[in-house]
Protein: Cyclic nucleotide-gated potassium channel
Organism: Novipirellula artificiosorum
Amino acid sequence: MYDVIFEADTHAGRWFDIGLLLAILASIFFVSLETVDGYADNDWIQVAEWALTILFTIEYVLRLVCSRRPLRYALSFWGIIDLLSIAPGYLTLLIGSSSSALLTLRSIRLLRVFRVMKLWRMMNEANELSTAIWRARNKIVVFLSVVLVAVTISGSLMYHVETLMFNVDPEKKINTESDFTSIPQAMYWATVTMTTVGYGDVVPKTVIGKIISAALILLGYSLIIVPTGFVSAEMINAKGTMADDRTGCPICEATGHRSEAHYCYRCGSRMS
Amino acid sequence: MYDVIFEADTHAGRWFDIGLLLAILASIFFVSLETVDGYADNDWIQVAEWALTILFTIEYVLRLVCSRRPLRYALSFWGIIDLLSIAPGYLTLLIGSSSSALLTLRSIRLLRVFRVMKLWRMMNEANELSTAIWRARNKIVVFLSVVLVAVTISGSLMYHVETLMFNVDPEKKINTESDFTSIPQAMYWATVTMTTVGYGDVVPKTVIGKIISAALILLGYSLIIVPTGFVSAEMINAKGTMADDRTGCPICEATGHRSEAHYCYRCGSRMS
Amino acid sequence: MYDVIFEADTHAGRWFDIGLLLAILASIFFVSLETVDGYADNDWIQVAEWALTILFTIEYVLRLVCSRRPLRYALSFWGIIDLLSIAPGYLTLLIGSSSSALLTLRSIRLLRVFRVMKLWRMMNEANELSTAIWRARNKIVVFLSVVLVAVTISGSLMYHVETLMFNVDPEKKINTESDFTSIPQAMYWATVTMTTVGYGDVVPKTVIGKIISAALILLGYSLIIVPTGFVSAEMINAKGTMADDRTGCPICEATGHRSEAHYCYRCGSRMS
Amino acid sequence: MYDVIFEADTHAGRWFDIGLLLAILASIFFVSLETVDGYADNDWIQVAEWALTILFTIEYVLRLVCSRRPLRYALSFWGIIDLLSIAPGYLTLLIGSSSSALLTLRSIRLLRVFRVMKLWRMMNEANELSTAIWRARNKIVVFLSVVLVAVTISGSLMYHVETLMFNVDPEKKINTESDFTSIPQAMYWATVTMTTVGYGDVVPKTVIGKIISAALILLGYSLIIVPTGFVSAEMINAKGTMADDRTGCPICEATGHRSEAHYCYRCGSRMS
């Protein structure tokens, strides 16, 4: 039974994983559908939701029972995620659906979305990616800091330029209003712009504002490709290193062998 | 005749390919133009459309006749694409243009767009690209899963934040409405945002919503460059391997040697 | 004199280049300013425009005179660009500013914008970039073809989905209108979306349209990073090859030496 | 005391740095909050602002006192940034809050945003990034020039196409107006589009305009990935060189050897 639930090698374990995957996807689907107008109190969704909650409860109990160290599992990352997947259902019963508790209810139900995290457990490739992200964490912090500094400076600059220009040109001020109502708003604009998302809900409207904004976009864009290339370079090196780590010639110490290599490419000596 | 149609090496085969390319492009042009207001029932387009359908029919019949195994061709990927290119024209005749069948008609006509797939047959470089995409399929699945998980969590979070904030601030609720009407809508927003498309039809309107949204954008952006670098790294490694293919081992025919390799990594024999 | 104009090595040549650069930038500035409301018939701009035209005329004549093969220069890429820089000024005189010829006039004046091409002549790095683009031309064609095929298919699909959904749901049809008025419009949407520009002037409005659109965006985004990585890989290889091309050990034929290498890193023999 | 302030190695230096970091972040937070409606004249913010100004003044004085060469520090980059962090506070006192000086006041207060630059001093990784940006400066200039040329040409083209098409089609001209009111406006559009920001405040509205725009977007996008790959390649090469620095020649101390090098490329001496 331990094999079926925790390992994916056996035939039964495979089917268990596929079933769980479908249950997770269905759960996400129902949680989302519940918020769509007209489906909020749909009976079928309630039934499906409860069926899934019971299913996940059985899975949780089984994992607890099968596990050699139940407490350690319960306190592990996956244990908490598994608990969060079922708790909201039972908490709803406790609180009841009295209208006064609606807000609390909503927040609790949000937790069900973490069921999507269960997907990770099934992906082998994800481990490699997590390792890659973990290795690149310093670069990501630097990247975020660069963006933060750039966002603060360009946001403040644009806020002053736009409000100043609207003050100078009294005619325009009457017709339209600056979208840059405050520095946080301007920083929101800078974030949305520098990441090239560009919603268009906050845009410069004065001529000077547009010129400075175009200059900032170009500058920001050419600055942002440097940390991006940085992270890419890190990934490429990491991949290279990973490949190298597995093998190294015991005779001539040459590195960079293919993972399937039997003989050293430089000295031709046999490798284990 | 087989040479002319299936091979591009001969002079006649070249011209056949160029003619086919022009016919495909013209076909796409007419299919598109048909939907533009005022061109829908244009006689010239109908004539051109029929001329192209007949041309593609001749091509299909010739391919069937020339092919050594007609059935195998008919059931192959290209055979089905070729059939889909001509079928809608004849099906339209069968159904007639009675107004009640308009919807079915429209769906059938959509199939003609697959003619554009015929372009692939002409591109040699495309094979290399298909191989590259095929090799990177695991990475793409991981990438899509990462985005899916991120979209689900950030979408749900933003939906709750925006609706909560609009509930808290009753004044704003009257003036405007939250764009985040449901979780699927919020997930649509998250998808559009994380891929940096940023239409701007769904945007956060509350202050807290904007702050969380800016944080999510930055986080999403810095997370997304990691899988992007991952895929790039995969492509670069793939290319390196492909380039090395030229120096194959003369004994065991193993490929993928490093450019400076003296000995085959598989059999250990000396290479020039 | 030939040295001054065609070479940048001498002191005078340097100053000539800097002067020309400023003249080009000023010219672009005035051409742009002319179209801004209220500056159209500004006398100062007209004077500056004529001064620059005369300056560029002198430059053109000097280049013709100095050149060893005037005709060859006149018919070369740069010769034509230089001619296009001055021709519109004189053609305006010929046509006159009669209101009937305004449209022709406007088209001719557009040609002045090609003056910006003169910038290229001054950039050494640009040659390296041109070479890189030229080497990657096959990849770019493949990339554009992939995008074209994807744009055609997803555009057609979305057009049918959106118009169909608006037909099915009669209530919505009254309130709003689908942005997907025709297949070319839908292809415009697909282009704007797949390149992650995302203006937001054409957006899906039905629920099904949004779901399919989100799926297409994700698919498109994950497909587009493959050719992007492809081109990056090409650039990285090209750079590697360029560095390698300069040097190769005459004894052991090892490649990949640094450009400043005096000795082979493998066998230690002296390299020229 | 010098150690505490200028070095981060000691225990006290660490805490000093963390305290300073929090002070900078709090300062940015208050400067931003001040511009939000309803918080402008909040007493608490004024108090916090003054507390931070006094804190930064103490830091500045301490640095001046501790520094071995006070004048050199005062005129250095960090000295000026540190001065700009405190000057606005005292200048505000000098000018007073008379309404006539409001504009000058606002400009002075903008300077406080440069406090965010202080963050850089704390980041070790940032040095590596600065070096990388500095190495790639030529590429960035080329990249910006390419974008500038592309922006100028495509902007001018679109301006003429859109205004011409609106002239040709008199019906449309009445209903809507072209967003391309001038060439600078069109260049703003081109910048926003080519960097894939895509606000959507300036969009083509005529059919021809949309077709040309879609073509320009595709062309621009496929051209822009080349310089992007270029910069990435530069970063990757730079990283490779940096990684190799560890294996320096024991004789001539040359750095940047390949990882498999047996002989120094400069002096030819054997390396372990």
